[in-house]
Amino acid sequence: MKKCLFYLSVIVMALFMVVAPAFAKTYIVGTSADFPPFEYIEKGQIVGFDIDLIKAIAESQGIKVEFQDISFDSLIPGLNAGTIDIVASGMTITEERAKVVDFTEPYYSANQAVLVKEGGGKNVTVLFGDHKLAVQTGTTGDLWVEENLEKTGILKGKVTRFDTFVLAIQDLLNGNVDGVVLDTPVAQRYAAENPVVMVAEIITGEEYGFAVAKGNKELLEKLNKGLEEVKASGKMDELLKKYF
Ligand code: GLN
Predict the structure, then answer these.
(1) Which domains does the chain show, CATH number per domain?
(2) How much helix, strand and coil, in percent to the nearest 5, is found in the chain?
(3) Atom of ligand 1 nearest to the CA of 34
């Protein structure tokens, strides 16, 4: 009888292990897939460091994730409206943002950089005077340009704000703007793959975190726990090596 019960409980447990993942909640991850190597489109798929990292975290916590490509500026409103559950988009942890969303522990550090067109004879002076700049709307690069160059009057030319960095870089290549201000690791990647050069680094000491809706403690804890496990298992190092 005892043996019978034992076998029965083993069968029930095995069934549970097979069935439970099928019922695991699927979390929608919002990302602006124009930020290589963190998130970008390759052969029609959203790929990148953030994508692999969130997948590894999800696996370690037994949750499922699906990705949605959304403009950077719509990510926080999406979290607040409940149309997405997680932001994984190279998002810098800032005081302003932390008032409206909750961030995980930091997972990557960055600064701002200035990109100009290769062979165009421009340098860091594109930040001053009558030059034209492009940024991505709502990014820390956008805010830095506004606070330090526009409000101070150091820059007199126009600043064009794009929905995606892909469009900002395109405008730079077309010669419509003189420079683009964006995060250093992404500037380096664009410079490696396009005729653009990084002519300056602006030390802003930013740190990226994943974001969830304000007060979603359960999900935040899962992400933080997963992040720790991914670091401890060596998976984080593997991903850093793969993408940087
Ligand atoms: N790290 C920058 C920010 O948070 C840019 C992020 C991005 O464009 N994906 O604003």
Answers:
(1) 8-107+209-243 (3.40.190.10), 110-206 (3.40.190.10)
(2) 45, 30, 25
(3) 9
